[in-house]
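Figure 2 data, in text form.
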Amino acid sequence: MFIYTRPAYQFCQVVLQGYLDEQFYQLEELQDESSPNFVEEVVTLFFRDSSRLVANIDQALQKYPQDFRRLDNFMHQLKGSASSIGAAKMKNECTSFREFCNKENREGCLRSFQKVKKEHAVLKQKLENYFQ
């Protein structure tokens, strides 16, 4: 019988809930004695950069609501960041937002952006719990 340690159990729960994918596990594989906090540092950088991008998108939606190219470019960056740490749900919401940009559907972008922000906040909370 395999018994989960607390971090392993929490990680499995986050993965099973669809918040993280294989990419996060691969990041953990890169962590070793020479860089024992590697994953936490990468995640910290992700949230610093992603929070800035979320703010930029929020601002662009207010100032340039019809500039779908600008919105798509910001969301493309956010999606890439989410993909780099394995943030599966967030990446999927970013994809939806970009599809609304391609259709020039402002209301769809607004609804989708609310979901992106929600997934960002939930992921942040789950990962904070995981690293404690």
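Caption note: Helices lie at 6-16, 22-30, 38-63, 68-85, 88-102, 106-131.
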